[in-house]
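From the methods appendix. Each design record in this collection lists the tokenized structure first, followed by the designed amino acid sequence. Records were kept in a plain field format so they could be parsed without special tools. The example shown here is representative of the layout used throughout.

RECORD:
FOLD TOKENS (258 positions):
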């Protein structure tokens, strides 16, 4: 039986989650802080710790803040410095995304960051999903030298954007890896494999774990409305294994049929 080529990347919000991704069989992590804001660059210490502990590939998001993807000169300077820090720490790759005010890819700045990152591969993240024209944006991203595009097909989730993702994969050909992400779950990844034909997928594989705190002051809330102050949400190694198993089975099924 042929070996499935499916690559699972886990969006990890902590070193603990990075290690769970590895235990679950993921090929790569995208290391982020502040997942509720879509991910920002983790601290130097966190990146160093992850690099020391991981045997699988470690990619780091280069995003100085949440919100839009139109960055000031000050923010761009931070992005440059974070890329250089990642190179010092022997990170495997970085993840970036920059737009112009008109909703196009910021080609000049993106190309500069790709050149600064060399020889690390570069993924362009879901800033693409709020770009004005997906096929023009795809060609712009390819022209900058990026190696991979993370996308939900310009919809809220990858299952909703599967039709566009498939078209993007066909348009990119061998020039760029198209990687579906957002809303990828154990109960829909098989369908995504069949619909998109992609071989790389991005998910967090997260689940709530109970806090070890025995004393709890329920009067004080520090998080957002409705947030459980005593639940820790991390990547689950078991869930990663399940998602990967579903993806592998789906890929093998599709290729048996063809």
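DESIGN:
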């Amino acid at each position: 039986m042929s070996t499935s080529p499916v690559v699972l990347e886990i969006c990890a919000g902590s070193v603990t989650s990075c290690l769970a991704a590895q235990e679950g069989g993921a090929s790569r992590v995208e290391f982020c802080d502040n997942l509720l804001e879509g991910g920002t660059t983790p601290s130097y210490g966190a990146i160093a710790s992850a690099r020391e502990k991981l045997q699988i590939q470690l990619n780091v998001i280069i995003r100085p803040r949440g919100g839009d993807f139109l960055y000031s000169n000050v923010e761009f300077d931070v992005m440059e410095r974070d890329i250089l820090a990642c190179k010092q720490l022997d990170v495997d790759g970085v993840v970036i995304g920059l737009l112009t005010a008109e909703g196009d890819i910021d080609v000049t700045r993106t190309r500069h960051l790709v050149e600064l990152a060399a020889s690390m591969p570069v993924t362009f993240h879901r800033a693409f999903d709020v770009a004005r024209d997906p096929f023009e944006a795809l060609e712009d991203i390819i022209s900058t030298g990026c190696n991979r595009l993370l996308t939900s097909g310009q919809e809220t989730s990858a299952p909703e954007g599967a039709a566009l993702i498939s078209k993007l994969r066909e348009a990119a050909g061998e020039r760029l890896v198209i990687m579906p992400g957002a809303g990828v779950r154990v109960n829909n990844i098989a369908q995504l494999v069949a619909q998109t034909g992609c071989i790389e997928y991005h998910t967090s594989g997260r689940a709530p774990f109970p806090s070890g705190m025995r004393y709890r002051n329920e009067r004080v809330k520090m998080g957002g409305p409705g947030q459980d102050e005593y639940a820790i949400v991390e990547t689950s190694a078991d869930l990663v294994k399940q998602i990967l198993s579903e993806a592998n089975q789906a890929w093998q099924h599709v290729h048996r049929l063809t």
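APPENDIX NOTE: The longest strand covers residues 7-12.
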